[in-house]
């Protein structure tokens, strides 16, 4: 008698399915991990996506949007999983997160709201050493949450990965004058961060999303911003004019598998519907794509 697995395999090989049926089957086995427009490039567990941009440029808002999609139940378009958010900037607004979650729910069901909020795990780190200690204890916390909630982690978010870079760099120079102070070597710190995350991914496969604040410099004259044409063409051309200096050590840079540039847009539709909205441009740098997406961040009102 054939086993159930063998019967299903033969049925799949001999069967004939439509394109719609194929997509439904693939999504049920390996769903897309991020909402649009972050789904232009296939992302899988183990990938490290870096959101690069000035402050502010809606990087944290993008994290919140992806986190809510992950914690929502499947019948509301979510992934029914939990998310771990590491706040290194110490500026996360939980009230705004709650408002956006309620906005995504089809109706304000307190039970469903509490379930979603319980799946959003939050940790705040005030310095590098606390960040490293948190990474070392994540395995136990994720195991505990998995047993309690019955689902595994979907995303590990870090906002922002470069928050302590300049503080550590200043401490390194100060330590050269004071031998009693512990020296901070930026390369060693990044190596420890990367190694701890790699160990965590071996046991808890997740997608990593990290934000990084940068300061842009314009290589060319401002006249290049006056190029006429449609919005997308101007966005593509002007993005090439903005350069930022990479400050994270090479060990982190090589750890990143995907990178998106996020910046504000100067092209705002003049309509009453967008009166309380901000506009941002997203461009894939790794891998390089020629498409520039525009996102609208609306003010959430209670």
From TrEMBL:
GO CC annotations on file: Rad51B-Rad51C-Rad51D-XRCC2 complex; replication fork
SUPFAM superfamilies: P-loop containing nucleoside triphosphate hydrolases
Superkingdom: Eukaryota
GO biological processes: double-strand break repair via homologous recombination
PANTHER family tied to this protein: DNA REPAIR PROTEIN XRCC2
Name of the protein in question: DNA repair protein XRCC2 homolog
Biological source species: Clitoria ternatea
């Amino acid at each position: 008698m054939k086993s159930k697995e063998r019967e299903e395999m033969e049925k799949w090989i001999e069967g004939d399915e439509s394109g719609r049926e194929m997509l439904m089957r693939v999504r049920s086995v390996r769903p897309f991990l991020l909402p649009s427009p972050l789904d232009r490039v296939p992302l899988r567990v183990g990938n490290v996506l870096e959101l690069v941009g000035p402050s502010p440029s809606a990087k944290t808002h993008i994290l919140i949007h992806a986190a809510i999609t992950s914690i929502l139940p499947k019948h509301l378009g979510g992934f029914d999983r939990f998310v771990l958010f590491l706040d290194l900037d110490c500026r996360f607004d939980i009230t705004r997160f709650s408002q956006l979650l309620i906005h995504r729910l089809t109706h304000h069901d307190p039970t469903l709201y509490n379930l979603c909020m319980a799946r959003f795990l939050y940790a705040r780190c005030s310095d590098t050493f606390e960040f490293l200690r948190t990474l070392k204890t994540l395995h136990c916390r994720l195991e505990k949450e998995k047993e309690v909630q019955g689902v595994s982690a979907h995303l590990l978010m870090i906002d922002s990965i470069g928050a302590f870079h300049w503080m550590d760099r200043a401490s390194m120079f100060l330590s050269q004058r004071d031998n009693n102070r512990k020296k901070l070597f930026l390369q060693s710190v990044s190596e420890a961060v990367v190694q701890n995350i790699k160990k965590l991914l071996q046991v808890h496969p997740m997608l990593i999303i990290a934000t990084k604040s940068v300061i842009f410099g314009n290589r060319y004259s401002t006249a290049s911003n006056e190029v006429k044409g449609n919005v997308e063409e101007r966005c593509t051309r002007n993005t090439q004019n903005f350069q930022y200096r990479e400050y994270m050590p090479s060990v982190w840079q090589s750890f990143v598998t995907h990178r998106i540039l996020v910046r504000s847009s100067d092209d705002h539709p003049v309509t009453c519907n967008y009166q309380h909205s901000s506009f941002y441009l997203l461009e894939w740098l790794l891998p390089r794509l020629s498409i520039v997406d525009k996102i609208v961040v609306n003010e959430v009102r209670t």
